[in-house]
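#dry-run=false #mode=assembly
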Amino acid sequence: MLKPVAGLKKSAPPKSKPKSTRASPPAAAKAAPAPVPDEPAHRVSPLAPKSFAKLPPLSGVRLAAGEAGIKYQGRTDVLLAVMAPGTQVGGVFTTSKTASAPVEWCKSALSQKSARMLVVNSGNANAFTGKAGVEVVRQTADSAAALAGCKPQEVFVASTGVIGEPLPVQRITKLLPEIYENTGAGAWNDAARAIMTTDTFPKMATASAQIDGARVTINGIAKGSGMIAPDMATMLSFVFTDAKIPSDILQQLVSQGVQDSFNATTVDSDTSTSDTLLVFATGKGALHDPVLRANEKRLDDFRTKLFALLKDLAVQVVRDGEGAQHLVRINVNGAESQASAKKIALAIANSPLVKTAIAGGDANWGRIVMAVGKSGEAANRDKLSIRIGNHKVATNGVRDPNYSEAFLAKYMQRQEVDIDVDVGVGKFSSGVWTCDLTHGYIAINGDYRS
Amino acid sequence: MLKPVAGLKKSAPPKSKPKSTRASPPAAAKAAPAPVPDEPAHRVSPLAPKSFAKLPPLSGVRLAAGEAGIKYQGRTDVLLAVMAPGTQVGGVFTTSKTASAPVEWCKSALSQKSARMLVVNSGNANAFTGKAGVEVVRQTADSAAALAGCKPQEVFVASTGVIGEPLPVQRITKLLPEIYENTGAGAWNDAARAIMTTDTFPKMATASAQIDGARVTINGIAKGSGMIAPDMATMLSFVFTDAKIPSDILQQLVSQGVQDSFNATTVDSDTSTSDTLLVFATGKGALHDPVLRANEKRLDDFRTKLFALLKDLAVQVVRDGEGAQHLVRINVNGAESQASAKKIALAIANSPLVKTAIAGGDANWGRIVMAVGKSGEAANRDKLSIRIGNHKVATNGVRDPNYSEAFLAKYMQRQEVDIDVDVGVGKFSSGVWTCDLTHGYIAINGDYRS
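#status=ok
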């Protein structure tokens, strides 16, 4: 669970080079000048948004990125976010039984309910690194806490990259003081870029909402590109708001909001050891009355905007799915429960045969039937209906009389494909997003690590 | 469940052209002479056995293949097997909720416990074809039954190929009388070829066993190549013995034997609508005393040989996995139950990231850790150990001190790769077979149907 899907406010793509702090970079990085630090390693996904959101300053949050050279050279790989005293936090994490040391740290820190700092590194996931990995997180938190004068438990840590390799923590701790000095309110683009691994574009979204007539802001960044690349893993997302929301309520909101966003998306069905979504509320924006319950009507606008922003970020991750050529929305109706509808939708979304058919521009609906059957969920084969786009391909368990191969062949040339399935047993629905399975995925993931 | 894995008796590859009956072929097929009927559509899998089993005649079974031209031209696509009166039968089928009409027919026919005929066609799965599809099976069974003078319920029917397209049953029923006339005891190679879809080699195995000192024979054929190809689906396997085994006992044996064979293999995690395994016992071989229980000691040799033959056929299917370049055996130890061990092994076997790493010759064990975590089954991250070949890559939750990238890089060049994982929580084990995920899989399944 907690897997990657897009669509809110957008503006022109950020042209400015990220502001990067390069403090005592490791040997290899020292010599040559940074070779276009904002150029991704792979060709930009054809599904990338045509423009990027421009995130405004957000009261109570300062950020900066730096180059620790942990794995990547000539680009930023450490993000530091500093939040105002009193910042509240909620989060959800990977369900993996082999979760990374930073995930375990964050889960524990969450019980403190308050956050002052976020430290993220890319290039090494600090996963499957035993006691040494736990020590790396502790040292990172200690070093950061000393800068802000907060408790280590108020420092949230996330790592993404290779699994199973020791993380040289000194590269981070040595760099933190300088990054800390450089933090500012405008470095959102830098932040989104510093956490990228095999991502081909930075993922950002912003929204504004009203609580009691007071205008508050929500900014979010994310990274992820499938579960991954040569051996990177992970979806990470960090969302910040200047609204004043107590951590218990924030936690309820994020747990609910993730269901139709990050948990309704899949690239390759693989679950990272490090998936992390954290939502921070500084309470330093426009004044509003205290928020008492997650479901109160006063929060309606904020909740709607937050959930839409989470979905926006999640779909951006799918748009950057490794090798993706098509963005696919799968909607299942007529299921006996919402959970059943989602399970069927994910069975279709994760089927290699469905995904390769879409890659080939083939509306091979027989494979959708197969995937419904494979899910193990209740479905009435003789009432099953399938639409691709607005075209009925199957009705009541057989090919639709008006089925048109020519229409479908044309429709499948689109970058965005909609599949609607009615399984004919109930009235529940669920929708998920995925991408196709292409030669690009094999090339990215089948290359030898080097 | 009931998904495809190899290893018994082998002899020289069959050179002879299949004996094919061509009765009133459809228009398209009529004109041109058959263009090399035994040449598969795709290049032969590099994992194909170096030699093929030569199946001996088996008392009480006669077979022949014919060309109905349902989808393929210039090759056989219908198999007819005629069994002696009194033949007993047991079977297992796909767990798909959208099973094909032939699967539903066979499940029902199985309750009769006796079998006289088997009719199989390739090229059209007769799945998701509604009432018309049911009628196709009924007509096929009626036509065949009339030839042998048996009940339609003693005719077993299987179809493999495109899903959702009407099957022109007349092409089969018109051809059956001529195929029936041509049946013989030696046409095993023809039989194995007639049921192929995107298979690149025919799958056959034979064994002999002793019951009470009497020597009996077991012959089996199978088809399958992933779940599929452009839009073929399905694993089919038919096993015949001249031993005298009552259907209840045969059913127990096949249900047990499938667990570590066809149900311990996966190519792409997709479950066909048509998977079918049938075992027929003619009772016409060397005389032995009546068999009373599946677990009696007198059956030990027969049971062992039957199970080994099922595994042989299942691994042959994996060796022909679409685009496969590596055959992979995954063994999970230290699990809290056998079911848990199998679930973890299948999570590793089905992980696109593990499969692409193997395709790229990359011993990327971090992805194995990921897949263990993703399975949701009990595992102790800090006791987890992984071996690839005989080389320890991870011990007690961290990279092994003697880890050698160079050794592994060499090992991964092999065609057959062994992965052993100990999850450190119990004493149960399970093993599965799979293949890698390559550009070949994308090419085969991403091509447009035409």
